[in-house]
Amino acid sequence: SVGITALGTERGLETRLVPERGYELALIPAVPLPRKPTPELITVPGRLRGTIKAAEQILERTKADAVAGFGGYVALPAYLAAKRLGVPIVIHEANARPGLANKIGSRYAAQVAVSMPDSKLRGSRYIGIPLRRSIATLDRAAARPEARHRFGLDPNLPTLLVSGGSQGARRLNEVVQQVAPWLQQAGIQILHAVGPKNELPHVQQMPGMP
Fold first, then answer.
1. What is the pTM of this model?
2. What sequence ranges are listed for the domain Glycosyltransferase family 28 N-terminal (predicted)?
3. Domain boundaries along the sequence of the chain
4. What is the pLDDT of residues 6-16, one digit of tens each?
5. Residue 152 gets which letter from DSSP?
6. Which CATH number is associated with domain 5-126?
7. Which residue of 22, 42, 100, 126 is 20 to 30 Å from 174, comparing CA positions?
């Protein structure tokens, strides 16, 4: 049997999704890495050391045989903790442009898988995006009428799907609001995933925006 423990932070979607699926969730402090030089950058090394230590303790407690990482706040501390303890690292990069955590982690990883064939991550192997069987085998043609009905879409109009990632993107939501009337006039309907933390109550009421 295989035991799985997911690392996360208290503000991530994993606090809901992981327990719902019956897996153990262990939390470590979030240490965002500034993309540009800021005064906050000075505090990162000290905070990162504490987070790495927390990740080490979890790896030791669970007697982890491997660490699988996908980038993000918790990935870099997990990679560095695994390196210290000699635990093998496996990475999957789903984005066309790898993030900092996976760039660093790929230096120490036993295996690096990517979703894009031209990825620049060292030692990477192209495998695409792993999908659940229910999605990979979905009969899209058969599901399409039900999906149109559920979202109130007109089958005779082109549809623009807007999604700002798993939690949405406020700025993207604002732009869609602004251009929605022009898209509607052009005969384009919009299916907009605003994200759980970026609710815009009046979006659903705008004509042409299911």
1. 0.77
2. 4-113
3. 5-126, 139-193
4. 999 988 888 99
5. T
6. 3.40.50.2000
7. 100
| Beta bridge pairs of residue 111 | 90
Angstrom distance (rounded) from CA 191 to CA 17: 24
What is d(CA 178, CA 172) in angstroms, rounded to the nearest whole number?
10
58 and 26 in contact (C-beta within 8 Å)? yes
Given a contact cutoff of 8 angstroms between Cβ atoms, the answer to whether 68 and 56 are in contact is no
Q: What is the pLDDT of residues 148-192, one digit of tens each?
A: 999 999 999 999 988 876 666 778 888 888 888 888 889 999 888
**Higher model confidence: residue 202 or residue 38?**
38
Nearest to 25 by CA among 4, 51, 46, 47: 4
Beta bridge partners of 89: 67
* Residue 38 · residue 66 · CB < 8 Å: no
7: β partners: 26
For the record, the structure tokens of 140 come out as 């899209």
* pLDDT value of position 30: 84
